[in-house]
Amino acid sequence: MRKRISLLCLTLAAIGLLAACSSNSASTEEKSKKKSLTFVSNFPSDTLDPQLNYTTVRAGIAETLVKVNEQLQTEPWLSKKWKTEDDGTTWVFEIREGITFQNGKDLNAEAVKHSLERTIKESEAMKSALKIKEMKASGQILTITTTEPLATLPSELVHPNTAIIDVDAPDTKSKPVGTGPFKVASFKPDNEMKVKKYKEYWGGEPKLDEVVLTFNDDENARTSALQSGEADIVYRPAIESLNTLKKDSSIVVDVQPSLRNQMLFYNSRQEAFKDKNVRKAFDVLLNPKDVVDTALAGQGSPANGPFLKSLDFSNDQKTKIYGPSEAQTYLEKAGYILKDGKAIKNGKQLSFKLVTYPYRPELPLMSQMLQSEAKKIGVKIDIQQVENMDEYMTTKNDWGIVTYSLVTAPRGDAGYFFNALYMEGGAFNVGHFHEPALTSIINKLNKTVDQKQRNELARQAGEIVEKETLHSSIVHPNNFAAYRDNVKNWVATKSEYYVITKDLDVK
Question: C-alpha angle 490/495/500, rounded to 5°?
Answer without folding.
Answer: 35
